[in-house]
Amino acid sequence: MNSFGEAAWRGAVSLTFDDGTDNQLQYAFPPLTERGLTGTIYLHARDRAVVERKEDWMAVAASGHEIGNHSLAHICANNFSDRRGGLEDVSLDDIEADMLAAQKRLQPIAPEQESWTFAYPCACTSVGEGQNRQSYVPLVAKHFLAGRGWGEYGFGNTPEYTDLANVWGIRTDRMGAFEMIGLVEELTARNKWVVLIFHDISGDRITVARDDYLMLCDYLARKKEEILVAPMAHVARRVAEIRRAS
Length: 246
Ligand SMILES: [Zn+2]
Fold this sequence. Notes:
Blueprint: E1 11-19, H1 22-34, E2 40-43, H2 48-52, H3 54-62, E3 66-69, H4 78-81, H5 92-106, E4 117-119, E5 126-127, E6 134-135, H6 137-143, E7 146-150, E8 167-171, H7 177-189, E9 193-198, E10 200-201, E11 207-208, H8 210-222, E12 227-229, H9 232-245
Parallel strand pairs: 1-2, 1-9, 1-12, 2-3, 4-7, 7-8, 8-9, 10-11
Antiparallel strand pairs: 5-6
Helix pairs in contact: 1-8, 7-8
The protein binds zinc ion.
């Protein structure tokens, strides 16, 4: 038995998508469903594109994918917006209220879903600045099964030790298929949990090309017996259970 609970699995991969765009509905989830794979969509609960396509996201949830909380106001560090009012200027109470308000709106999209995970907007995990900076990871630990942040390029999560409230993700924006496959191949060979972060698929912002994405999906479908491909909550639950048992 290895860290993922099945002798056959050498590692795990969670495919995660941020923000809830139209091109994710069109290009990200149907190829996964067709191949019997599931992923996680982190919805930014107040975003117009998400609100307007609520039923489409409900259908995504109904076909086995995970809906995740990506906050209500999507507050990031001031450097992202070039103005004040970002994470440096809010309190822990503000951020807790925001994530709970988002949860209230997201719950009806996946009414059957038992466990929820959170993705830190812009991968920022603290509020305040300087000597008053405070981590909000403990709030994510309090309200969610797991939280997804960003990690150093080329590193996966070690199931035995990773902080489930701040699981490391690897940004795939602008990556080609061979680089994504190489990362998965190498890191799962070292028994890691690899969390890939996508924004657009075939979009016009930060994007991965559709061909590259499909090649990754085909590769993962072929490796299904060796690599556990599952949403964040599924892998987090498995990791937590195994840690408890040992
Ligand atoms: Zn985002």
